[in-house]
């Protein structure tokens, strides 16, 4: 990725100003309301502020029922849900997906998604979207550590610290590294911290790191969530900063939780949106995308500690409230962030999913 976190650039806004565009939007709204339903998948309410984002969409379009499938699913599960429901127009067929950056091209190549360019298309960075409109970036954050400071006296500052004996039975991922994008990219970050370039090398070094972590008895093969942090089952969790910050707020000091951006291997991760090629409610799906990429939808993600993909444009036009920026970690913490390319993520993903069992051999369970 070529765009920089918190950078501000002058980008023109493609607004619905002409009568023709307004008419098209009115027609889309009417068609979506006639369908009456939108089926989402893998959208936990504490992920990126999705609870409030979904509530905002419902408030704006009360005629459309939002059917939420499997909130804790991973990106691979989302694609499988489309494959499994190609001929199913019932409530188990997702209309839209929100997946890791590397899963967008995969879904396109398999014919699982359909193109649609939102009204604010021109304000999405070119290197964060498919030129034909099959998928487009929605938000990003950096891989960080969430630490239960009731149980961890010395907060780790970097990946290498996690190997210390004092962190026995303490370190966990947020999913299965064979299918969860967040877990796959945590492995990339750990490999980058060992000096590897993003891609196949970062996967090799990352798997080596996790093998060491597992052999040392520090790795906990449990899918970490805010509840497992609160229970003390996963005192240290590797996850996106926005998830950890949201969990910290929800825990409200019980237990106290610190969020740390590591000193090295600072990995920025972009997620993307797409519409299923077999969406039972295609117009509701398009309207959902219009909402997500509107100023209101983008700022909804920022409230959830995610940097929306249109952040530069919103900043350039003075549309980002300072109080939202004040709640984010200092900008300096992100200055070393690396945005891997699609090709690098694909290479890392393939090597991680194929090598996890052989190299690490720890089955991550719910």
UniProtKB/TrEMBL annotation:
The keyword Ubl conjugation does not apply. Keywords: Signal. Gene3D superfamilies: Periplasmic binding protein-like II. Residues 1-22 form the signal peptide. The keyword Transmembrane helix does not apply. This is ABC transporter substrate-binding protein. It comes from Paracoccus pacificus.
